[in-house]
Automatic annotation (TrEMBL):
It holds the Pfam family CitMHS. Coiled coil: none annotated. GO terms for molecular function: monoatomic cation transmembrane transporter activity. One of its GO terms (biological process) is potassium ion transport. This is SLC13 family permease. The chain crosses the membrane at residues 5-21, 27-43, 50-70, 90-121, 133-153, 173-195, 398-425, 475-496, 502-523, 530-548, 568-588. It comes from Pseudidiomarina sediminum. Keywords: Membrane, Repeat, Transmembrane, Transmembrane helix, Transport. InterPro entries: Cit_transptr-like_dom (IPR004680), DASS-Related_Transporters (IPR051679), RCK_C (IPR006037), RCK_C_sf (IPR036721). Its main location: membrane.
């Protein structure tokens, strides 16, 4: 009994920390792992066994393959065809959500969204309609697509491995398809019919508008002859001002220098264009003796040049920007990049960015050298919202990665190789074939997810060994006492789905699977329908933006608030839950 109390306290503490989100989930999971080890719930030789688990290796390999397919332009080619579907918003929403769902069955959900979000925004800016109408259904479609195959989402991979650890063969790559594809189709149909009324419309993404008006904070400052700053660098100018502002351009005669470097020296009669609020502007005028050169608002024509670009980007769920500000990161000093504006939930934040701490889903407007901006996005874990140029290249660049990926699927489906071996070999072949450079092999593995899985797998074992899983399963069965077995499956699916909305879905699968197995043992039933219920419940968090990375990514561009996800997510959860229970009962009977 003492072991059950200890594991209960550790897991409840971990769940609270997951929800509070003060520390990253992989750090919390490792803390829970060490706590369970200290109190004797996990044998010393098994503490780091999760890092060698087949499910962890498979997830890493699938992430590498997803990046290879993204890099080769295979999915870009499909996304570009959406432009041929006409200007009807409803039709474009159907095509975008359907394509995102299909792609997400084979590559990571976030990889699919990284490709499809810029397409949706470009269609919206071309006058096709509100991007907000399409982005939330696309995010939910990516989650639905993950249920179709074993490699579509980490919970499926985990459940397959847990099945193998209990004496059965692991699920094959298409064992999830009969249930997953019907659930995905039911979810898509429901969204296509009801999205017009249930998805909130955000004015921030109407036709060609932006969630922020940069021009409202742009001012021309004239540097007269004899001024003390003549001959000084921009760094020296900026150092005189306590508040945060951005020098976005210098007009020198007929020449315009966009995003000038900090070592650029000022000359007499230069016109310096700054982005600053009224208070900061007054401080600049008082301290430096610049003169106002224009009273009217400026447009943004001088923000870009052949080399300098202005690009929007989303702060990703595991971005290094989270919790830090532009001043902390010294983006201008280190990279020559200006942060022109920040929008959160579709609304602009104050123009002074010195105190703004970035959050997942924030939309940033950055100005700088195009190549440097690309490096900054990659370095700090941001998703650019400008549509990427298609990477079609040679025919071999499309066919080869598709051939390698298809070969891995066939080898695992026919039983020639296990899934971890087949996909690990395919990842290696992508490098040997130069589809991805070897330096990028590990860059696009989501290491926090890998550490989370490796830490929670031993915790799941401790939950089972301590008897806590049996106790929780008994409580669930007591609630559904006297009811058909399908009610127990429904209860397990519902609890898992709710849990996955507040913690990482991989962790939800690891923690709920032992409970599902104990429920099956108590009913003397097959493990399979209960494991399938856990897999589906963990993969479909529709109620909150924090439930999955895809939900976070669309929050800023769509202008959604936290509560907006319930409007479509709750009825969608009910529909797919009912369909899932029916399909699980038909496809995976409890007895036999």
């Amino acid at each position: 009994m003492a072991e059950q109390i200890w594991i209960g306290l550790i897991l409840i503490t971990a769940l609270v920390l997951f929800v509070v989100d003060r520390w990253r989930y992989d750090f919390v999971a490792m803390g829970a792992l060490f706590a369970a080890t200290i109190v004797g719930l996990i044998p010393r030789e098994e503490v780091f066994a999760g890092f060698g688990n087949a499910a962890v290796i498979t997830v890493a390999a699938v992430l590498v393959l997803s990046h290879a397919l993204w890099r080769s332009g295979v999915v870009d080619m499909m996304a570009s065809s959406v432009k041929q579907m006409g200007d009807q918003v409803w039709l474009q929403m159907i095509v975008l959500t359907g394509l995102t769902t299909f792609v997400s069955a084979f590559i990571s959900n976030t990889g699919a969204m990284a490709i499809m979000i810029p397409v949706a925004l470009q269609l919206s800016r071309n006058g096709a309609g509100h991007a907000s109408l399409m982005l939330m259904p696309m995010a939910f479609g990516s989650l639905l697509g993950g249920t179709i195959t074993m490699i579509g989402t980490p919970p499926n991979i985990i459940i397959s491995d847990i099945r193998a650890s209990h004496g059965a063969e692991p699920f094959s790559i298409f064992d999830f398809t009969p249930v997953g594809i019907v659930v995905a189709l039911a979810g898509l149909l429901m969204m296509w019919i009801t999205a017009r009324w249930l998805v909130p419309r955000s004015k921030s993404r109407d036709t060609s508008s932006s969630p922020y008006d940069v021009s409202a904070y742009l001012t021309e400052l004239y540097l007269p002859e004899g001024a003390s700053l003549v001959g000084h660098t921009l760094f020296e100018f900026e150092s005189k001002i306590k508040e945060n502002f951005a020098v976005v351009a210098i007009k020198r005669g007929k020449q315009t220098l966009s995003a000038p470097p900090r070592y650029q020296r000022l000359r007499a009669e230069d016109v310096v264009i700054v982005e600053a609020d009224a208070e900061t502007l007054q401080q600049i005028l008082d301290v430096t003796k610049f003169e106002l050169n224009a009273e009217q608002k400026l447009d943004t024509r001088f923000l870009v040049s052949d080399e300098i670009k202005v690009i929007e980007g989303i702060v990703g769920h595991d971005s290094r920007l989270i919790g830090r500000s532009a001043a902390d990161l010294r983006l201008r000093h280190r990279f020559g990049v200006n942060v022109l504006a920040v929008a959160r939930e579709g609304q602009p934040l104050k123009p002074s960015l010195s105190d703004v701490r970035f959050k997942p889903g924030d939309v940033l407007l950055l100005q700088g050298d195009a190549e440097v901006l690309n490096d900054v996005f990659n370095r700090f874990g941001c998703l650019p919202l400008a549509q990427r140029g298609l990477r079609l290249g040679k025919k071999r660049q499309l066919l080869l990665p598709l051939g390698i990926f298809t070969g891995a699927i066939l080898a695992s489906a026919l039983g020639l190789l296990s899934v971890p071996v087949a996909f690990s070999m395919a990842a290696g072949l992508m490098v040997l074939a130069k589809v991805i450079p070897i330096r990028e092999l590990y860059e696009h593995i989501e290491w926090p997810i890998i550490v989370l899985l490796a830490a929670t797998i031993p915790l799941g074992g401790a939950l089972e060994r301590s008897g806590a899983a049996d106790t929780l399963a008994g409580a669930a069965l007591w609630v559904s006492q006297g009811a058909p077995g399908v009610v127990a499956i429904s209860l397990l699916l519902t609890v898992t789905m709710l849990l996955s909305n507040i913690i990482n879905n991989a962790a939800a699968a690891v923690l709920m699977a032992p409970i599902g197995i104990s429920m099956a043992n108590s009913l003397e039933a097959s493990h399979d329908p209960f494991l399938m219920a856990v897999a589906l419940g963990a993969a479909l968090p529709f109620l909150t933006p924090i439930g999955h990375q895809s939900n976070i990514l669309v929050m800023g561009p769509g202008g959604y608030r936290f509560a907006d996800y319930w409007r479509l997510g709750l009825p969608l959860s009910i529909v797919v839950g009912i369909v899932a229970v029916i399909m699980i009962s038909v496809t995976w009977p409890m007895h036999g």
